[in-house]
Design goal:
- The chain is of the alpha/beta class.
- The chain has one domain: 3-Layer(aba) Sandwich (Rossmann fold), CATH 3.40.50.720.
- About 40% of the residues lie in helices and about 15% in strands.
- The chain is built from 7 helices and 7 strands; from the N terminus they run βαβαβαβαβαβααβ.
- It has a 7-stranded parallel beta sheet, with helices on both faces.
- α1 links the parallel β1 and β2.
- α1 crosses α7 and α3 packs parallel to α4.
- It starts with 6 loop residues before the first strand and ends in a 9-residue tail after the last strand.
Length: about 260
């Protein structure tokens, strides 16, 4: 798919993996909408990158909000790329704690809503918008890239809610790709390992000491630019469809 002169919507585009993806696709010639709830950072990033990058305050669970971001992108150029890179955390907990109390059901629902339901909401609305495009020579009208996690495969103690939500994203990938074959829209997912983002709220050196050394090779945390590079390749390579790609330096999470 041709990135140059297409438009892209990046959820979570104001921070971490999303910001790196905004920068990468904008540098490749795409018009980009930063779909996020961090108004200050989103507006600053859009102002920095120029008039083909816009910010749209976006709640991934709200249909009108998502459609507004998609419409903003379509005003700039035909919508070709949707990336679900939004994040957040509500803590971790064992299903039964040391005190014998059960885990919070509200916490579990929060993770499912944000990471699975929010991803599906953006996927369905983005696909409907891209289905109106003229196809390329392969018949492709666009691509949706979702973000899973290696925790979908090797969830750690206390990660039941997060792992279940990300496993849902993994499970969504192939049937969504199959569903959308008739309209020529590809669906891919990326499963990152430990990537250094602002969510860690610490200096990289300290984060590397705690988490980077457990990565087999290269023995360091991933950089958001590496995630963004993979999104870029997926967008350009029409034969990538219906698959989950791990990007983790051969890391496999241990129970703790």
């Amino acid at each position: 798919m041709e990135i140059f002169n297409a438009s892209a919507v990046i959820t979570g585009g104001a921070g971490g993996l999303g910001e790196a993806t905004v920068r990468r696709l904008a540098a490749a010639g795409a018009a980009v909408v930063i779909a996020d709830l961090n108004d200050q950072k989103g507006k600053e990033l859009a102002a920095e990158l120029g008039n083909r990058v816009r910010y749209a305050s976006t709640n991934v669970l709200d249909e009108d909000s998502v459609n507004a971001a998609l419409h903003e992108a379509q005003e700039l150029a035909p919508l070709g790329i949707v990336v679900n890179a939004h994040g957040g955390t509500a803590g971790a907990s064992r299903i039964v704690g040391r005190d014998g109390k059960p885990a919070s059901f509200d916490q579990f629902q929060w993770y499912i809503d944000l990471f699975l339901n929010g991803t599906f909401n953006v996927l369905r609305l983005g696909a409907a918008a891209m289905a109106k495009n003229a196809p390329d020579e392969d018949g492709c009208r666009g691509v949706v890239v979702n973000t899973a996690s290696i925790a979908a495969f090797e969830g750690q103690i206390g990660q039941a809610a997060y792992s279940a939500a990300k496993a849902g994203v993994v499970g969504l990938t192939l049937p969504a790709a199959r569903d959308l074959t008739k309209v020529g829209i590809r669906v891919m997912s990326i499963a990152p390992g430990t990537f250094f983002t602002p969510a860690f709220k610490m200096e990289r050196e300290a984060a590397e000491e705690q988490w980077g050394s457990s990565v087999p090779f290269p023995s360091r945390m991933g950089s958001p630019s590496e995630y963004a590079a993979l999104v870029h390749h997926i967008a350009e390579n029409n034969y990538l469809n219906g698959e989950v790609i791990r990007i983790d330096g051969a890391l496999r999470f241990q129970p703790k």
